[in-house]
Design goal:
alpha+beta, 1 helix, 25% helix
């Protein structure tokens, strides 16, 4: 089968775009790491929440004995967690 010059151009463009996409997959690093999980021990439960789309990572700590939940957000520039919210979820007797 005989190929024309326009077919060769199309094949060349497809090969170049495949090469560029392959290089992007290899060399571009993801911007956020998501670790959505839950760990519980006794009265304490910790839940991680990935930020997604460049958002902050969050750590929620629940204390079922005292009925409190504290949310911490990770500050990547200072490499530490900051408390951002606290809430009581246990009704007063």
């Amino acid at each position: 089968m005989k190929t024309t010059q326009s077919q060769n151009v199309v094949i060349g463009l497809l090969m170049m775009s495949a090469l560029i996409l392959g290089m992007l997959l290899i060399f571009v690093q993801p911007k956020t790491a998501e670790a959505n999980m839950m760990n519980s021990s006794g009265d304490l439960t910790m839940i991680t929440q990935g930020g997604g789309n460049g958002g902050d990572e969050a750590l929620h700590v629940l204390d079922t004995r005292s009925g409190k939940m504290i949310t911490y957000a990770f500050n990547g520039q200072k490499n530490r967690f900051n408390a951002v919210a606290a809430q009581n979820f246990k009704a007063n007797p």
